[in-house]
Amino acid sequence: MLSLQRASLKTTSDHMTTFQNLLKHKIKIPNEMVHNLMLLHSYILVKLHVKRGDHMKAARMLIRVASNISKFPSHIAQILTSTVVECYRSGLRASAFSYAAMLLRPEYRSQIDPKWKKKIEQIVRKPDKTEEEEATDPCPQCGTLLPQSTLECGECKNTLPYCIVTGRHMLKEDWCECPHCSWPALYSVFREFVANGETPCPICGVVVNPQQLSVVQEPNLYAKLGEPSNEG
User: Fold this and answer.
1) Rounded-to-integer distance, Cα 194 and Cα 48, Å
2) Which of 30, 31, 115, 214 sits 20 to 30 Å CA-CA off 71?
3) Residues 97, 65 contacting (CB under 8 angstroms)
4) How many CA atoms lie less than 13 Å away from 118 in the CB half-sphere?
5) CA-based nearest residue to 116, from 86, 90, 93, 73
6) Nearest to 181 by CA among 20, 30, 31, 15
7) What is the structure's pLDDT at 8?
8) Is 0.70 topped by the overall pTM?
9) Residues 147/136, Cβ–Cβ less than 8 Å
10) In whole angstroms, what separates CA 228 from the centre of its chain?
């Protein structure tokens, strides 16, 4: 079981190393491992987005993690509290209300951090259920417009690769890869993210020089995570 409480860049890097070793030895990777690594990385990105002041991206990643809350029974109150706070800060008031109401169930209420308890109770007592719809981008495989944080396409039924910087699904025309671990990222975002030449990849932890990045012209949309999408 992955522990969100101890999640860190090193934790993700350790899981990624295991993942890469399995790929190297051509060992079939369990779907659950792929899914759990995605959830762990989504949680790591929350800290990154909050630090950069992007509460909307943080909220979307927390909603993803909170939607799989049963996988983390020891940290339910902690995760739900963070989700309520970031959703409220970013204007996702309907989502904030939904998770606040969940937190106030008898089994979780006593575990709420006193710092946030009054605010959470207020959100439930005076519900504001306004919420803008999430922006959409085309599915990289079939072109259907999907919410940016969605990683499953209902049209082509494919699980979509995600950007290691934003957590959003990839775009075919904005595709690049970490030069060290080959995990995909949105080129326009990754280049800005590592612009100072001293920033490590959020997956493998190795510093990326922006000059090493380039758009993959014809990415293999069905490549396994961690495998180069363009061998040419």
Assistant:
1) 13
2) 115
3) no
4) 1
5) 86
6) 20
7) 47
8) yes
9) yes
10) 21
